[in-house]
Amino acid sequence: MVHQIDILVNNSGRSQRSLVLDTPNIDVDQAMMDINVIGPISLTKAVVPHMIKQKSGQIVVTSSVAGKVG
């Protein structure tokens, strides 16, 4: 069976709603980076070779305006 990847939607996110001084554990920051940055990069790297081979495909990346809210 031949599979084709037509679209990848990178739509994930995690936020932290506490003051930096109240969150001294770096594991919280690492988990956010893994989900918000490394996750979409890893998925894109896994899918792009297939899209190049099939000469088609689209990648969509969503983001949140939460970063603009103080």
Number of helices: 1
What would you call the structural class?
alpha+beta
Described by the principal axes of the CA atoms, the overall outline is elongated
Helix content: 40-55%
Arithmetic mean of pLDDT: 88
Distance separating the two termini = 50 Å
Q: In what range is the share of β-strand residues?
A: 5-15%
| H-E order | EHE
The low-pLDDT segments are none
Strand order of the largest sheet: 1-2
Could you state the oligomeric state of the chains shown? Answer: single chain
Total strand count, please?
2
Major β-sheet profile: 2 strands, parallel
Radius of gyration: 16 Å
Q: What does this protein look like?
A:
- The protein has 1 helix and 2 strands.
- It is α+β, with helices and mostly antiparallel strands and 70 residues long.
- A two-stranded parallel ribbon has the order 1-2.
- The chain is elongated and about 50 Å long.
- The mean pLDDT is 88.
SSE diagram, text form:
Elements: E1 7-10, H1 26-54, E2 58-61
Parallel strand pairs: 1-2
Describe this structure in a few short sentences.
This protein is α+β, with helices and mostly antiparallel strands and 70 residues long. Helices cover 41% and strands 11% of the residues. The protein is elongated and about 50 Å long.
